[in-house]
Write a structure and sequence with these properties.
CATH class: Alpha Beta
Oligomer: single chain
Radius of gyration: 17 Å
Structural class: alpha/beta
CATH architecture: 3-Layer(aba) Sandwich
Low-confidence stretches: none
Strand order of the largest sheet: 5-6-7-3-8-9
Number of helices: 7
Shape: globular
Mean pLDDT: 92
CATH topology: Rossmann fold
CATH superfamily: P-loop containing nucleotide triphosphate hydrolases
Amino acid sequence: MADLLVDNVTKDFPTRGEPLRVLREVSLELNQGGNLAILGPSGSGKSTLLHILGTLDQPTSGQVRIRGNDPFQLDAPQLADFRGRRIGFIFQEHYLLPQLSALENLLVPVLAVGRAGQADVKRGRMLLERVGLADRLDHRPAELSGGERQRVAVARALMREPELLLADEPTGNLDRTNAVSVAEILLNVISPENKMLIVVTHSMELASMLNRQMELIDGRLE
């Protein structure tokens, strides 16, 4: 079985009339170390699919398995723990806490579930060094450029060593030079981590940098 298995996932949203079907029998497989770009116009269901893969929303029908586990069989506390340990998120907005330094922002996912130890601080420093911010550890977000803030967000997503990394338009707010730089850093940083990566994007340039490309058309993944 693939490390990530999505089998015939359908998602409906209730309306006053017939349910609105956003995803139609979506299936995909991805293994450890693999990466995939999902393209599609606005309203095609890309974010809905990403929310389901990230266990933030449930499919109407179909199945999602991560390393053989069906997260939607877990109760709410178990699901939150599963999501926090096994899935990392990168958004179009960096969502860094303005009062914290770059390193402190990396420790937030760890502090959310307990205390940060020396091993966590060491990993945080290592990740910031890998994204080229070794000299920005103590800088707050306002002291960083847009590209640097997004690099911190990439490092933060890897902090708890997730198996699956989901990126929703991770370069959407950046100019072309910074977008290419962040995309290259993202791919270079996850390579030694051997993670699964799925990127939702409008950018053909970003999509072409990944190993596989699929497109959502009328709710179907092709």
